## 1
Amino acid sequence: DLSLHSWCFGSSGINAEYGGQKAVSSTATPRTRYGGKTTVTLIPVRNMALLTALRGGPDTVTLIPGDGVGPELAESVTTIFKEMAVPVQFEEIQLNRELMKDEGAFEYAIKSLKRNGVGLKGVINRSADFRHHNLEFRGGLDVYANVVRCMSFEGIKTHHTGIDLIAIRENTEGEYSSLEHESVPGVVESLKIITREKSMRIAKFAFDYAREHNRKKVTCIHKANIMKLSDGLFKACCKEVSEDYPMITYEEQIVDNTCQQLVINPQQFDVMVMPNLYGNLVSNLAAGLVGGAGVVPSKSYGENIAVFEPGARHTWMEMKGMYVANPAAMVLSSAFMLKHLQLNEAGDLLIKAVNNVLNKRSCMTIDLGGQASTLDMTKAILMELDALA
C-alpha cells in the first residue's frame, strides 16, 4: 500500500531506506532551517509523485488555528508537516473570538470543514454573545463523538503512572444544548436534553472503538441516581448496546465516584463513555493526571467528518505571541489526523517522535517544568524524526 510508504528521512549525502523504499538522492541538502538552525534533512522517496497522483492529489485539510496560543501551535504542525513532506495541504482559515462575530467568516469555515471532511482546529475563545457558534461547530457538523486519550509519559513526573484511558463524550446534547431561559425574574431554568437516538449512537461508537482498538472494558459514567429519566435513559442505552459486545466488559459508575476513583486509582479505567458535561469534567481531570493540557490530544467524529484538536480546550490568551506553549497536544492530534487519512506510517512515526521528546525530558516547556519554547520543542520533535528514520 503506497499510502503507508510516502516519505522518509535521511542524513545529507546518505541514501536512506524507510519501509523498504529507497531515498532518491545521495546529495540531498537541508530543505528548511527553523530558528536559524538546520533541524532535519528530508529525502523524499521515489514514489512521492506517484503516491500523490494515486490519491488524486494531496489531501486538503481545514486548519483553524483559533485564539490565544493556537496560531503558534498550528505553526509547529505546519513546520513539521513541511519537513515530513506528507501529501497534505492546509486550507487555513483565520477564525477567532473577534471574527466569530462575522457570520460570513464562520459560515465559510463550516463550509470548508464539510467540503474537506477533515479539520485541525485550535481552541476558539467563547462568550455568551456568540455561544451558538461554538455549538454549531459540534451540532451543525454533527461531530457527535469526542475522543480524548489520556496516557502517562515516562518523562513527565506525576502522582500516578501507567494511565492509558479513553474518554468518549457525547458532543451534541445534554446540558450543552444551551436551552436556558429566565421564567420569572431571578429564576433561571436550564434544559438538559438526552435522546435515545443519540445515546444509542454514542454507546455503539464507544463499543466499536473499544473493539477496534483492542480495549477490554467500557464504563458508562452517569448520574442516574438523581437524574433518573435523562441519565437513566443514557445508562439504559449503554447497557442495551453492551449486550451486542460480549467480548468487552461493561461497567457503570456514578460521575462523582468516577472523579474520586480517577484520583485514587485511574489505572482501573479503559474506555469511558458519558454525556456531554461529564465528558468535559472527566477529560480535563484525566488530562491533569498525566501532565496537563499540553500533552493530551483529542478527535471528534461525525458520519462524514473528523475534527482534531487539543484534548483540553484552553486558549492561554495571556501568553499569546510569546511562543512558550507546549505544542505536543496539537502535534499528537495532527498525527492521529494522519492516521485517519490512512497515512499510518507517518502518523505512527510522529507519535513516537513526540513520545521520545517527552520521555527523554530533553526539551520541556514551562508547563512541564522546563524553559523550552514552542520553537525549541518543535525542533526537538524534528530531530527525533530524523533519528528514527
## 2
Amino acid sequence: MTCHEICESKAPLVCVPCNVTPRSVVKHTELCKLVPAEGLKISILVRKCLIEVEARGLNEPGLYRIAGVDRDVKALKNAFLKGKEDSHLAKIRDIYVVCSAVKSFLRDLQEPLITLLSWDDITQAAASEDDKRLMDLVSDLPELNKHTLSIIILHLLRVASCEATRMSVISLSRMFGPAIVGYSRADVSAMSILRETRLQSTVVQSLLNLPMGFWDNMLQAKEETRQQNLAPPLLALTPKTPEPTPVSHLSSILGSVEVVARKKGAASSGRFGKTTPTSRGMVDTTP
C-alpha cells in the first residue's frame, strides 16, 4: 500500500487496495470495483461481515430476516469505505446490522451475481431441476461473481444448519433471491415482476441444494495459489474480541473462522446485550 509518511501510522491494519471500494456510498456499483486485485475476488465487506455473523450470531433467530437499524447499517458501510471496519465491527452489538449490510451490499451492485447474460439459462436450469446444467452455468460466470456467490452459499448453508437461527433453506432463498439473482433485465415490466420473484427464490434454493464440494472447489484452487504466494491471511476476527474457541465448520474459505466462547450465565435476552424493540421487532421485508 502506498501512503504519505505522516499517514503511515493511521493506515488500516488490513491492506485494502485502492480500487477495492469507492469513496462514498453509491448505488449500482460494479462488482469489479469492490474486490481485491489479487487472490479470491471477494469484497472485504462480504468477507468480514460473514465472519462476524458466523463468529457471533449463529445462536440468534431470524438471521437475514430481521432488519438492522438503517442508520447503523449505513454507518457500518461507511466504516468499510474509510478502512475503519475492524474497530467499528467490534463495537456493533446487534448482529442484524451486519446481516443487513451484506444484503444491502448485494442489492447495491450494478448487476446481480447472476449476470443478465446468464439469467435465462440459470433460471431455466433451476426450474427444471437440472443440477448438472446449473453447475456448468455457474462455473461459466465471471470469476469475481463465482467467488462471491460461493462464499455466500457456503455461509448460508452454515446458517441453515443451525437450528437456533430458525432459518431454513427455503426462508434464506426468499431473503436472498432478489439480491443474488435479481431480474432478467433492468427495465423488467410490472407484469413480469411476480413471476421472476418466484424464480429468484427457486434459483437460490437450487444453488443451496448443490453439493457442498462444488462450492468448495470453486474457491480452493484460487486459495491454494494465494497460499503458495505467501499472501497475508485472508480472514481474521476483528481485534479486541474475546478469546476464540475453534469449532467444526464447513470445509470452505470461512472454515478457519473461530467462534467466540460463550460466557457462563449469559443473559437470556441474547448474546449481544439487551435488545431494543427497534432492532429486533422489525422484520426485514426487503430481500
## 3
Amino acid sequence: MVEPGFQVALVSGAAAGLSVDVALFPLDTVKTRLQSAQGFWKAGGFRGIYSGLSSAAIGSAPNAAAFFCTYETVKKLLGHHLPGHLDPVCHMTGATCGEVVACVIRVPTEVIKQRAQAAPHDKTLQIFRRTLRHEGFFGLYRGYFSTVIREVPFSFVQFPLWELLKKTWSRRQGFQVDPWQSSICGAVAGGFSAVVTTPLDVAKTRIMLAEANSSLAKGNIAHALNMVYMEKGIRGLFAGVVPRSLLIAMGGAIFLGVYDKAKDTLTKWTITEHS
C-alpha cells in the first residue's frame, strides 16, 4: 500500500473525525449521562440528546486530522528503521504520539461537550463562558492528563489490532483490504479496546464534570477511580460499558472506514494528477 502524504492524512483524518462524531453523538450523550455522578435521569435522561453537538463538531475535524498526521508520520519514520516483525511497535508508538498531540485540541471541546450533555438546558456558549469565568483558560484543559491516560492505552490496543486484522485479512484473500473490510476490522478493534479501557473513561468523565476546586477537579485519575469504586464498586467502574463499546465499535467502523476510503481516493487522485 502507498503510504499517505501529510496532506492526504490531514484531509482524510478530518473527514473521518467529523463523520463519526456527528453520526454517533446521541450514543455519546447517553454514555456521558450514565457516567455522571448525578445519575442518568437527573443529568437529562433522553432530553436534549444533541446538547453539545456544536462543540464536538468544531473540534472533531482538527482533532482527528492532528491524530492521523502524527500517526502516519511517526509510523512512516519508524518503519524505515525497524524490521517488519516490529510493525506493531511502529503502530503503538505512532498511536501514542498521535493521542498526545490530538488531546491538545480534543480536551477543550470534550470539556464543553460533556458539560453540555450533563446540563441539557444550558447553551454551549454559556458553558464555555462560564468555564472561562470561573476556572480560567486552564479550566478548558480540566482532565487533560486523565484523557491522555485513557486514550493512550485505548489507541495502544486499537491501532495495532486494526492494522493486524487488516494485514491478516489481506494475506488470506491475496490482495489489500477494501475500505469496507477495513471498517469491519475497525469495529472489532474499537469494541474490544473500549471494553478494557472503560474504567479510565469513567474516571475522565467524573473529573471533567466535577465542581471547581473539588478533590476530583485536581485531575488525579487514581483518586477518581478509587472514589467511583468506593461508591459503586466494580459495576461503577464499568458504568456505560455497553453504550461505550457499541459507540466505539460503530465509531471504529465509521472512523477507520471513512479514513481508509478518503485516503485511498485522495492518494489515487494525487497519483493521477502527477502522472
## 4
Amino acid sequence: MQLLIKAIEALGWRVGESIALRYFERMLPLKCTPARLFITLSSLHVHKQSLVTAWYFSDNQTYASKAHDLAEQWFLAEATRMNPNLNFGQGHPGGASGGSGGIIDTVRLVHLIDALQILKLSKSFSEQTELQSWFSQYSEWLTDSHLGKGESRAKNNHGTWYDAQLQNYALYAGKPSVAKTVAMQAASHRIDTQILPDGEMPLEEQRTKAWSYTNYNLQAFFNLATSALHSSVDLFTYTSSDGRSIRKAVEFLLPYMLGEKKWPHKQIVPFKFSELFEVFRRAAIVYENATFESVIQKASNVSLAESVVNLIFPRSAVPDIEDAHHPMMTGRLDSSGLLGKVRGEAAVPSGYTRLPSGVILPDMFLMEHLS
C-alpha cells in the first residue's frame, strides 16, 4: 500500500489537496491543441486509476472522494465538463477545425471504465446514471458523426483503438448490441487486415517509432479481445484460415524481446521493453503460458516489482508460477490470484465478475454487473 501512496504523492500532491482544481486551472481551456488534450487526459487517466486502485486496496475513503471529484469535474460539472464529442480533436489553427485522428486521444477513457465500475462501490459515488449517459452520448457520436465514421475506417492502431473505445463505452452505457456488433466484426475488420500470418503488423512497422506503435496496437487488441468476452466472442483464440491471430502477434515479438534478433525497423526513440510488460503478462494469463511471463523477466532491464500491473494482473494467475509471497500480492487481492484472470467466461468462478478490461472482482464488492 505504501508503494501506491508514494506513487500518488510523486505526482506532485498529497491527499487533502484539490488536484481537480489545480489541473483545470493549469490545463483549461484546451484551445484545440492536441498535445494539451493528450497531456490532460493522461493526467486524468493516471490520477483516477491510481486513486481508485489505492481506495480499493486500502479502504481509505479519501482516495475514493478525490477520484469522485475528478469524475465530477471532467464529465458532470457544468462549468468544466467535457462535451461528449471530439468535433475539434487535433484541430489546427488556420486549417481544419478537427480531424478523425483526434479520436485516438481519448483511448485513456477506456481505462477509466473499470475505475468507474469499482468506484461506484464507494460511499462517494452517486452519479453512475449521469456518467453512463455521458458515455452513451459519446458512443453515439463515434458511430454517427463523420469524424467517427472516418476513424472507424482506419486500418492501423487507430482502427483497433476505435473499436476498443466504442466497445467499452457501449458496455458501460448499457448498449450490449453495439458492443456485440463491434466484437463480431473485429476478426475480419482488424485481425485479418492488420496481422500477417507470421505475426507482423506492417502498418505499425512503417512508423518512425515502429516498436512503440507495434506495442500500442497490441495493447488495443488485448483490450478489444477482453471486452469482446462480454459479448461471448473469443478473439483471443481466433485464428484466420492462413494463421493470423493475436497470439501470433505476441509470439512474433519474442526473439526481439530476448535479443535473439535485432529490430529491423525504425525506432527514433529508445527501446523500452517494459512497454510490453502488461501485454506479455496478460498473454501469459490468457494463453496459460508461463513462457510469456519468463520473457518479461529476461528482457526487462528495469525492476517491474512496483508496477500496478502486478496488482491487476498478478503473476500468481499465470500457470506454473507460484507467487503467494510476492511483495505486491497483498491487500484485498485473494491468494488464488483471481483478480486479473482474463480467459473465457468459463474461467470466471462462481461469485466473481469480469470487468471490461479483464479485471475480475468478487461479487461481494460489486453492486451491479455488466451484461
